[in-house]
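USER: I would love a firmer grasp of how sequence relates to backbone shape in proteins. This is the protein in question:
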Amino acid sequence: IGSSSAETDSQTEWTDVQKKIIPWKNSTSSLDLEMVFQDRAAKLGKSNSRLIVVASLIDKPTNLGGLCRTSEIFGASALVVGSLHYIQDKQFQHLSVSAEQWLPLVEVKPSQLVDYLQQKKTEGYTIIGVEQTAKSFDLTEYCFPEKSLLLLGNEHEGIPANLIHHLDVCVEIPQQGIIRSLNVHVSGALLIWEYTRQQVIKQKQ
């Protein structure tokens, strides 16, 4: 009886299952699936989020594809890239898993960033750099404004000095390990999530 009871308890314990839905592997009819995609397309650019993620300084398609996916999942209002040609790259597409179809993408070349940041400031955005500086705020203590623009640095050089002067604030991620830097996609994802937690999820509660 003990053995049978233990087996029953074990079966009861593992009742949670994945509920990820992969549309092209689902049993949904092609007509219903088309209606779902049309509904999402109709909402494109109408996210409640006021977060703009600027990745113009990033030049690795894998990082851009991952950021595209993360930005779409958490409902960022737009992803800014240095060139729209990146979305044709197979490495980008492998990481983005079609997120570029549902997320507004804006092309701003690195040489145009100063003007772009100034324009967004006039529109009421706070320009936030993801960078370790002498005056940077700890991510755990920073409160994101509703209209936030997140500027991510280049994989190797970070954010250039000429752009740091145009930032309203720098935010850094607290670290415990010996290695003092994170992959730029990971850094971006952490800040995107924290913005979402503060500005979107809390407002729904």
In short: Residues 21-30 have pLDDT under 50 and may be disordered. Residues 197 and 205 are 11 Å apart (CA to CA). The two ends are 46 Å apart (CA to CA). The first strand starts at residue 51 and ends at 55.
